Model the fold of this input.
Amino acid sequence: MMKHALIRHKSFSAACAGMKLCFQLAAMLFILALLVFYISRLTPGDPLQSFYGDAVQSMTQEQLDAARVRLGLNDSIWVQFVKWTEQTLRGNFGISLRYKRPVLEIVLPLLKNTLILGVISYVLVFSLAIGLALVCARFENKWIDKIICKIGTMAFYTPAFWLGVVFVLIFSINLKWLPASGAYDFGKANSPLNRAAHLVLPVSIMIISHFWYYAYMIRNKLLDETRKDYVLLARAKGLGKMQVLTKHCLRNVMPTIINIMAVSVPHLISGTYVVETVFNYPGIGLLAVSSAKYHDYNLLMLIVLITGFLIIISSFIAQYVNEHIDPRMKNTDIITL
Done:
């Protein structure tokens, strides 16, 4: 009887926690949408330029006024936001002013490219960061550790856009080894090798710009572990330093690494958007820049909602991991963004 009551209590608690997370997610997305919607309407520029292109120059004032009424641009910002919210809740995200197509049809194919670039970079950044952190911890204060630290610091502080341009000049223009832009060559959308070749430079820039930031944190956590008594005991039993690091220290710092990986998602998403812009890689980062530039409001709002959803979900995961590492955090409402 007590067992069934305990199970019902746990189920009720889990349902309440799930509802709380859904409410927090909806509230954060609403605030984010409200801010971006309001700020985007205040930026200088005419959305009719995006809708009609150069033809807007030859339109009469009556035609311009009629177009503004038809597109709802004459309403106040708050009225526009209420209308947009009503349509969004029905699953209608609107039409792109620039492409004259539903924004979902434009964003979804490009979201796939962004996820491919982001996931590959994410896996490689942390694989390399953990590997280098182990090497640095193994050779602490030796010449290998010092060289890796100096090169890593230089790479981290080098601007990604500048490094991207340098790589294009070297590997695309001079050596002609790799393509400089795009996700694939014309007619080769289904070729994995062609797509992989277009990913080499963007992924390389993502790795160089981000890996050392995380490698340095993991290195320091590993070095803290090497000062503990159980390491001395393991060494006294005859285990090599690298064996102790990989079999004991790395396992003990793994919760911290998982926490770092969860918190790093917003950092890597922003880096992906920068890289897409530098290499003209067709993803939602590049699309976000062009939609803001051309006042394509519906397109910008959908990209903001998708990006905000990914960042907030990753923050929830980070909080969940933190609570399991330190149960005292369950009593706080801190959301790490």
